[in-house]
Amino acid sequence: MSNFIWSDVPSDSAFPLASAGYPFIFASVFTTVVFALLGLTTLSLMGLAATFFICYFFRDPDRVIPNYAGCVVSPADGRVISAGLVDNSRFYEGSCIKISIFMSIFNVHVNRIPHEGQVKKIHYFPGKFFSANLDKASNHNEHNAIFIETEGGKNICTVQIAGLIARRIICKLQKGDIVTRGQRFGLICFGSRLDIYLPPEINLKVAVGDKLKAGTSVLGDLI
Fold first, then answer.
1. Catalytic status, residue 192
2. Does the model's pTM come out above 0.85?
């Protein structure tokens, strides 16, 4: 068995972009062209810079995924801001390991499945927009929780959380979907956070301060 797999078909583009970014890119290009036709040089340059940044934000690089039994990969790019045991979470019955990943506007924002299994439930909550690095963001911010059951009967919950700037959560999954480790499933626009709840017996391999990449960084191994 190979040590790595492609969870999605690799893109034909040298600089893959998430499809959700196209409306923002086209709007920025159109505005920039209008400024240029009107001879507004400064605004045209600002529009050009904004277009490049939006393309950079919505980049969606292909990733090779670690391929061994029990491997749990990061669902998001970003920095670990908390990792440890919690009790009585609204997203997990009993004790569990909760890992919070903060995504700045400079991180790739495409989210990926942490472990293969079946989507048992999806719960969307239209909440507030506190800064995503605050503890209260987990429960009070707008969020979308995806509950996955592995073939071995383990439960995993991945929660997309909107931030202070983020105003749109995208999730392409539906209840009953069979998903693959590292598979793309959505994104959060313009800065945000992702929490993942794992069985307490997992062999944890990350700590606060670690920088992660979705699909390639290993969070731990299910025992």
1. yes
2. yes
